[in-house]
């Protein structure tokens, strides 16, 4: 039996057109539950922050970003703040040049307005009319959108999972690779090798990315930047801000604007 969220949106996937859109407003703290879709999905919120978990990793998706989610991936979306979700379901086999991996993309002002307008288009829109042209323009804008590093890959190796779960739960943990290797009964070289093999990142890169995503969740809740910096293991607010600006080009206080 298909999970409830799949049945709820089934008519969008069975539409005779290559694209279909829907809107849904969610209160703070709610979750979609685990589900998947047979079509690729552009998941966007015009307000609020979405925290997306899957077996492949985790993403933080603020209003200036969208998540491109490949078909068939089991995922769960949790809401931080009141979320006004706008979703575009796309049969990617009908288009060339779309992202081949699940990723977070930058949402330009034009793409935002196209998504908002597309929600008002019926699922049986005329394929030769204005609605179809708007949908195709949305695809064109999606193709040229920048891909952003807001993904935290999840390793399958049990030893790495122990490290990653600890770093996610306690981002201020400053244990070195050598210390982790001793606890796990392996060499530091093995830990380094496994991280690159399983996540595509070094240990230091994965820990910094984990701290970033934890920080984004706390920023979304309006917590003080200095508290977030210390909770994420940084010696000062300035050190945290420098790291944040290096990744996103803006200070933490400006990210969600």
Task: Give a topology summary.
Elements: H1 4-8, H2 10-13, E1 19-26, E2 40-54, E3 57-61, E4 65-69, E5 75-90, E6 103-106, H3 109-118, H4 130-143, E7 147-148, E8 151-153, H5 158-169, H6 177-184, H7 188-199, H8 203-220, H9 225-231, H10 237-248
Helix pairs in contact: 3-4, 6-7, 9-10
User: Helical element count?
Assistant: 10
Total DSSP E strands:
8
**Stretches with pLDDT under 50, minimum 5 residues:** 1-8
Count of separate structural domains: 2
CATH architecture of the largest domain: Sandwich
SS-derived structural category: alpha+beta
Series of H and E elements = HHEEEEEEHHEEHHHHHH
Give the terminus-to-terminus CA distance: 42 Å
CATH class (first level) name of the largest domain: Mainly Beta
Radius of gyration: 20 Å
CATH topology of the largest domain: the name is Jelly Rolls
Largest sheet: number of strands, sense, barrel closure: 8 strands, antiparallel
What percentage of the residues does DSSP assign to strands (E)? Answer: 15-25%
Describe the structure.
By secondary structure, the chain is of the alpha+beta class. Helix content is 40%, strand content 23%. The protein has ten helices and eight strands. The protein has helices at residues 4-8, 10-13, 109-118, 130-143, 158-169, 177-184, 188-199, 203-220, 225-231, 237-248, and strands at residues 19-26, 40-54, 57-61, 65-69, 75-90, 103-106, 147-148, 151-153. Strands 1, 2, 3, 4, 5, 6, 7 and 8 form an eight-stranded antiparallel beta sheet that branches. A hairpin with a 2-residue loop joins strand 2 (40-54) and strand 3 (57-61). Helix 3 (109-118) packs antiparallel against helix 4 (130-143). The longest helix is centred in the C-terminal third of the chain and has 18 residues, at 203-220. The radius of gyration is 20 Å and the shape is globular.
């Amino acid at each position: 039996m298909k999970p409830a969220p799949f049945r709820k949106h089934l008519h969008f996937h069975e539409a005779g057109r290559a694209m279909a859109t829907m809107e849904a407003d969610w209160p703070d703290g709610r979750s979609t539950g685990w589900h998947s879709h047979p079509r690729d999905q552009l998941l966007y919120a015009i307000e609020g922050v979405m925290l997306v978990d899957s077996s492949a990793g985790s993403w933080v998706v603020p209003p200036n970003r969208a998540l491109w989610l490949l078909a068939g991936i089991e995922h769960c979306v949790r809401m931080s703040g009141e979320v006004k979700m706008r979703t575009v379901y796309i049969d990617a086999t009908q288009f060339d040049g779309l992202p081949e991996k699940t990723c977070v993309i930058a949402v330009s002002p034009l793409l935002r307005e196209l998504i908002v307008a597309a929600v008002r288009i019926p699922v049986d829109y005329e394929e030769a009319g204005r609605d179809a042209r708007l949908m195709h323009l949305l695809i064109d804008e999606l193709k040229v959108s920048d891909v952003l590093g807001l993904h935290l890959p999840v390793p399958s190796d049990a030893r790495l999972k122990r490290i990653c779960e600890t770093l996610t739960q306690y981002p201020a943990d400053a244990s070195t690779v050598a210390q982790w290797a001793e606890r796990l009964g392996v060499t530091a070289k093995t830990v380094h090798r496994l991280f690159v093999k399983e996540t595509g990142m070094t240990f230091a890169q994965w820990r910094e990315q984990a701290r970033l995503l934890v920080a984004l969740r706390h920023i979304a809740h309006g917590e003080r930047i200095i508290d977030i910096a210390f909770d994420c293991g940084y010696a000062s607010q300035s050190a945290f801000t420098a790291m944040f600006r290096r990744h996103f080009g803006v200070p933490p206080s400006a990210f969600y604007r």
